[in-house]
Design goal:
It is a single chain. The chain has 407 residues and is an alpha/beta fold. Helix content is 36%, strand content 18%. The protein contains twelve helices and 17 strands. The strands form four sheets. Strands 4-12-11-10-7-5-6 form a seven-stranded mixed beta sheet, sandwiched between helices. Strands 1-2-3-15 form a four-stranded mixed beta sheet. The chain has a four-stranded antiparallel beta sheet with strand order 13-14-17-16, covered by helices on one side. Helix 3 runs parallel beside helix 9, helix 7 (164-171) runs parallel beside helix 8 and helix 11 crosses helix 12 (373-392). The longest helix has 24 residues, at 295-318. It is globular, with a radius of gyration of 21 Å.
Length: 407
């Protein structure tokens, strides 16, 4: 490994060279079933022909200009995203964390424009992850990401998502500007919030004039079997939403969607980006949207999720010494383990399966939304081999009681 690279990643020793669908191939010829997908980013798998065609066609015409000019692809994608959601406006950035930063600025500016500049507090939740930029790490509040980077930014607090009385009290504060929450926590351990929680957050924020921000960077764009995860729960729609990852299918793009009211404090010059929404990104994202937004594609996600979770249940019953519980929604899935999740991830790679890590000692599976029945079965078989190997090594909980499957 080159010593010229800043040592910011604990990289697996796999030199990936090419991919097709759910499969990745390393330079040494090893093939892996990819249930990481660039961390829920390569939603249509690797080298999808529709995306290759869209990118190639646009590359022959125009890569980049500037947001001082109209970019037709932005207008077309904004129309599609707003027509499919609660939103009136879209703003395009380059990543999820940039989308979160923009969402936070929109929320604070809203209250400033309403004559309430004291309303700056943003309520987040333990176990959340909103990105690695400065505002985003303060919104999450994870000490690991904050340590050594100076004082905490003012106006950010984290609560337990299970402590609704404390959340209600914080929302009622006259200095609260917004609540930011992931409908399905990804990095925090694939924890799916229920409709009751999301609707109560919506009720409380509306009652007190507080904006509700959903971070659907990981859970959005079909990942749960709806275009966006909160759409499983009508009445829970946010004021602002940050999206990214699967929106570009592997090409860097992020976006913020907002209602006209929530964005009413923003005007020309208050925010911007050099590369965000460039013609290349828009061409790819439009192609991605047109594939994922189809009813058949979303129904396929739901069917493959059901197949995975049925298999997880069987694995949990067979390997109670390895699996604590299954989590997630759609194809944003997690297994909480007894053994160290990082060691299990490495062991899975030995069996040709790529899985991601997660908080609360989870592994996450985030495959292509186009994964097939046979590929799901192959992923489960490789996961079974991994757990059998872990058991043989003496990992896990020796005295774990067998799980009795429900009749």
């Amino acid at each position: 490994m080159s010593e010229a690279l800043m040592p910011l990643y604990a990289r697996a020793q796999i030199e990936v060279e090419r991919g097709e669908g759910v499969w990745l191939e390393a330079r040494d010829g090893r093939r892996f079933l990819d249930c990481v997908a660039g961390i829920a980013t390569c939603a249509l798998g690797h080298a999808h022909p529709v995306l290759i065609e869209a990118l190639t066609a646009q590359a022959h015409k125009l890569w980049h200009v500037s947001n001082i000019f109209r970019i037709p692809g932005q207008e077309e994608l904004a129309d599609k995203l707003t027509a499919a959601t609660f939103a009136d406006y879209a703003y395009f950035a380059n990543s999820g964390t940039e989308a979160v930063e923009a969402a936070l600025k929109i929320a604070r500016r809203y209250h400033f424009a309403k004559g309430q500049p004291e309303r700056i507090d943003v309520i987040g939740f333990a176990g959340s992850f909103h990105g690695r930029t400065y505002g985003a790490i303060n919104a999450s509040g994870n000490p690991t990401y904050l340590e050594g980077f100076g004082p905490r930014l003012p106006g950010y607090q984290q609560l337990s998502i299970d402590d609704m009385p404390a959340i209600a009290a914080a929302i009622a504060s006259p200095t609260t500007a917004a609540v930011i929450v992931e409908p399905v926590q990804g990095e925090g351990g694939a924890r799916a919030l229920d409709g009751q929680t999301l609707r109560e957050l919506r009720r409380l924020t509306r009652e007190h004039g507080v904006l509700l921000i959903f971070d659907e960077v990981q859970s959005g764009m079909g990942r749960t079997g709806k275009l966006f995860a909160h759409q499983w729960f009508p009445g829970a729609e946010p004021d602002i939403m940050a999206i990214a990852k699967a929106l570009g299918g592997g090409f860097p793009i992020g976006a913020v969607l907002a209602t006209r009211e929530a964005a009413s404090g923003m005007a020309a010059g208050m925010h911007g980006t050099t590369f965000g929404g460039n013609p290349l990104a828009m061409a790819v994202a439009l192609a991605v949207f047109d594939v994922i937004a189809q009813d058949a594609a979303l129904a396929h996600v739901a069917a493959m999720s059901q197949r995975f979770f049925h298999g997880f249940g069987a694995l949990a019953a067979r390997f109670p010494d390895q699996v604590v519980e299954q989590r997630g929604k759609g194809l944003l899935m997690g297994l909480k383990l007894h053994a160290n999740n990082r060691e299990v991830m490495a062991l899975a790679r030995e069996h040709g399966l790529l899985v991601a890590g997660g908080g609360d000692n989870c592994i996450r599976l985030l495959p292509s939304l186009l994964i097939t029945d046979s590929e799901v079965d192959e992923a489960l078989a490789r996961l079974e081999a991994t757990f059998a190997d872990a058991r043989a090594k003496g990992w896990g909980k020796v005295d774990a009681a067998p799980v009795v499957a429900a009749a």
